[in-house]
Design a protein that fits this description.
By secondary structure, the protein is α+β, with helices and mostly antiparallel strands. It has a single domain, classed as Cathepsin B, Chain A. It is 38% helix and 14% strand. It has 13 helices and 13 strands. The strands form two sheets. Strands 1, 4, 5, 6, 7, 8, 9, 10, 11, 12 and 13 form an eleven-stranded mixed beta sheet that branches. A two-stranded antiparallel sheet has the order 2-3. Helix 2 crosses helix 4 and helix 3 crosses helix 4. It is globular and about 70 Å long.
Length: 433
């Protein structure tokens, strides 16, 4: 018995000693693009709106329109109505809930415009946090009743007025005209003032079950509006992300965060080489404190995770910058919508490996896409025709995610080079126009 205790204590000592030898993450100074303050979506499933509104706020900053706080609930109210209509017209056979995607906001901005937060806070008491749990239940019950009326042939012609009434009670009456900064706007004229053109934005993804360089409808539950995604090889998807940031364009990100590698509390997201289940309690507790090598993510491994529903679209965020990590290369600066949590005040540093494995899609301004990729996708055409694309071979992938060799260090991102590339890209863009 004493011998057993001795070996147990000795093992614990070795584990502690090993942890002491590990080095903490060493993040350099972030290269951050213009972004508005972090917000909280509170008790709602509207990350798609908070993140995409943040994305458009950064677009306004990029275009020299100043800093503006856009109303998420103005968009949410319109999209909830659209989802109700879609659900009833599809006889109840459609996705229903609070979730959505970036193109839902862009579609609503195209049709209804946008307003500032101060004009439309979208709640009865601005001092209380958002909470749509009861609203979702009430809307679902109402729409199920309308479906039954349709089946019975008793649905009234103005049935959508019942949906409007319920939404108005929760969000308030939608403004048709308002005064902001001593100027009278409509939602559409305010969108035009900001310089936001929804047709200028494209959504990109990378999956091997569809041809590359062609658009397709991604098979995820929240794609209730049947939005089109341009399909790229994984390497080109990540190249587009880096190029966009280096040129001064932020990126809207749809991702999976329901895994052990994402920690909002620690402000870090990684894909450790050692699986979570293979770590003891001490190693697990040190996962986000001490650097460790990460897996090499291949396109086929990424596809396997998607098909096994291990990678799902459960959260959207806003990528606003880059930074170096002293051991493992470049990370991405991501703005979350869960309030100012962690030492990073609501931001998360996301590794390249995590980005490759868990990205569902990016939404970017089409001018941020590298020229060669824009050409393959047909985005340079006027008007753009998303169905006219050149054929390209599928990316060859290994059958498994071959882990990086222990201690492998990815090339570090030279931030001076980023600034040089950004200035060069701006000069090139100006010469193009």
């Amino acid at each position: 018995m004493k011998k057993h205790i001795f070996f147990l204590l000795f093992s614990l000592f070795l584990t502690t000693l090993s942890a002491q030898k590990q080095e903490a993450y060493s993040f350099g100074t972030p290269y951050k693009l213009g972004a508005t303050p972090v917000k909280s979506q509170d008790m709602t499933g509207t990350c798609w709106c908070f993140s995409t509104a943040s994305f458009l706020e950064s677009e306004a900053l990029r275009m020299g329109k100043g800093e503006h706080d856009l109303s998420e609930m103005y968009i949410v109210r319109h999209v909830y109505r659209q989802k109700c209509e879609n659900y009833v017209r599809r006889q109840g056979h459609a996705q229903f809930g609070e979730g959505g995607l970036a193109h839902d906001l862009l579609n609503a901005v195209r049709e209804f415009g946008i307003v500032p937060e101060s004009v439309y806070p979208g709640r009865k008491d601005v001092k209380k946090p958002f909470n749509h749990q009861q609203l979702e239940k009430n809307l679902k019950n109402l729409c199920d009743g309308l479906v039954k009326q349709g089946t019975a042939g008793t649905l009234q012609p103005k049935w959508l007025s019942k949906v409007d009434s319920l939404l108005d009670q929760e969000f308030g009456i939608v403004p048709t005209q308002f005064t902001y900064n001593n100027t009278v706007f409509t939602p559409v004229s305010f969108r035009e003032f900001l310089g936001i053109e929804p047709n200028d934005y494209v959504t990109l993804t990378s999956f091997t079950h569809h041809p590359f360089y062609q658009p397709f409808i991604l098979e995820i539950p929240d794609n209730w509006a049947n939005g089109m995604f341009y399909n790229l090889p994984l390497s080109e998807l990540i190249r587009t992300l880096n190029t966009s940031l280096q040129q001064g364009y932020t990126v809207e990100w749809d991702a999976d965060v329901s895994n052990e590698g994402f920690s909002a509390q620690n402000g870090v997201a990684i894909i450790p080489e050692r699986d979570w289940k293979d770590k003891d309690a001490v190693a697990q507790s040190n996962t986000f404190k001490f650097w460790e090598p990460e897996k090499n993510i291949t396109a086929e491994y990424r596809q396997q995770l998607f098909d096994r529903q291990e990678t799902t679209d459960d959260h959207l965020m806003h990528i606003v910058g880059l930074l170096n990590e002293g051991h493992g290369g470049s990370f991405f600066v991501v703005k979350n919508s869960w309030g100012e949590i962690s030492n990073l005040k609501g931001f998360v540093y996301v590794s390249d490996a995590y980005m490759r494995q868990n990205t569902i899609s990016f939404t970017v301004h089409k001018n941020a896409v590298p020229k060669d990729i824009r050409h393959r996708l047909g985005l340079d055409a006027e008007p753009a025709n998303p169905f006219k694309n050149s054929e390209a071979p599928r990316e060859k992938n290994s059958k498994t995610a071959a882990p990086a060799k222990s201690g492998t260090v990815k090339p570090k991102l030279d931030m001076n080079e980023v600034h040089k590339m950004r200035d060069s890209a701006k000069q090139q863009e100006n010469s193009d126009h």
